[in-house]
Design goal:
Blueprint (H helix, E strand, L loop, with lengths): L12 H4 L4 E4 L7 H13 L1 E2 L8 E2 L3 E4 L5 H6 L5 H8 L15 H16 L5 E2 L1 H9 L5 H15 L4 E2 L6 H4 L21 H15 L4 H8 L3 H10 L3
Parallel strand pairs: 1-4, 5-6
Antiparallel strand pairs: 2-3
C-alpha cells in the first residue's frame, strides 16, 4: 500500500513475501478500505506497486491473528464477511491468560530474566506474595500486559527480588487478595497521579538504558514516536 515517502522502486509486503508467508496481526482492527484491498489481493493474487500501472503476480500464504470476535465485527459492519470467509481456513483459538493461571509463574520468571538482561538490572526473581497477586489478576491484556507489567517492575526495582511494593498501582488496586497477602501498594507510587507515574517510569527507563530511546521504548512497550512525544511533553 501507499505510505509517506513511498518510492517506485520499493517493494511492498506482498512482493517481498512472494512464495512465502505473511503474518497479519490484529486484522480485526484493519480499516474497511484496507480490507477491500486485501480481499482483492487474496482473490486475484495480483498487486499493483506504488507509482506503477503494471500488475505483479504474487503467491502468498496468509496467517492472521486477532483478539476480537470477527463474527461480531461483521454484525457491527466493521469487518467484511467476504474477507472473513477468505481468511477463515484453519482456526486456532488461544485461551485467555486468566484461563491459564497455572502458567503465569513460569511466564513471570521468563519475563524477569529477559527484562533484567535488557536493562542490566540486578533483579533475579519475585517474592511469593507478589507472584500470588500477579497470578490472581485477570490480565485483560493477556501476555502483552503481563510482559509490560514485569518490564516496568524490573526497571523501577532497586533490589534483588520484585515485591508487592513494586506492582504498578493500576494492577495492585484491582487485584483480588489471597488470604494473608500484604495489602500495600507500590512504595513511592501510591498517591501519585498517573502522569507522574508515567514520567517516573520513562525517566528511570532512560537512565537504565543510558539514554537509548529505542531500547527504552521497547522496554516500556510503546512506540519510539510515542516515547519522543512523552519526553517532550514531560520536558525530560
Amino acid at each position: 500500500g501507499a505510505f509517506t515517502g513511498a518510492a517506485n522502486d520499493r517493494k511492498g509486503l506482498f512482493e517481498l513475501t512472494d512464495k512465502g508467508t505473511l503474518f497479519l496481526d490484529e486484522i480485526g482492527d484493519m480499516a474497511m478500505n484496507c480490507q477491500a484491498k486485501l480481499l482483492r489481493v487474496i482473490e486475484d493474487g495480483i498487486v499493483i506497486p506504488v507509482g506503477s500501472n503494471k500488475q505483479t503476480v504474487v503467491d502468498v500464504r496468509i496467517i492472521s491473528a486477532t483478539n476480537q470476535i470477527l463474527t461480531t465485527l461483521i454484525e457491527e459492519k466493521k469487518f467484511r464477511q467476504d474477507l472473513y470467509f477468505r481468511i477463515k481456513g484453519v482456526n486456532i483459538s488461544l485461551p485467555a491468560l486468566r484461563d491459564r493461571a497455572e502458567d503465569i509463574p513460569e511466564l513471570i520468571d521468563y519475563f524477569i530474566k529477559e527484562a533484567a538482561a535488557e536493562v542490566g538490572s540486578k533483579v533475579t526473581g519475585i517474592t511469593d506474595a507478589a507472584q500470588t497477586i500477579l497470578s490472581n489478576f485477570d490480565w485483560p491484556g493477556n501476555i502483552r500486559q503481563l510482559l509490560n507489567c514485569i518490564r516496568t517492575m524490573v526497571v523501577m526495582c532497586d533490589h534483588n527480588k520484585l515485591d508487592v511494593a513494586d506492582i504498578p498501582p493500576e494492577i495492585a488496586q484491582r487485584r483480588q487478595l489471597a488470604p494473608g497477602t500484604p495489602d500495600r501498594i507500590g512504595t513511592g507510587l501510591a498517591g501519585l497521579q498517573l502522569n507522574e507515574i508515567e514520567k517516573q517510569a520513562i525517566t528511570d527507563t532512560l537512565a537504565k538504558t543510558k539514554g537509548n530511546r529505542e531500547k527504552a521504548a521497547k522496554i516500556l512497550g510503546i512506540g519510539e514516536r510515542t516515547l519522543y512525544r512523552k519526553i517532550k511533553e514531560y520536558n525530560l
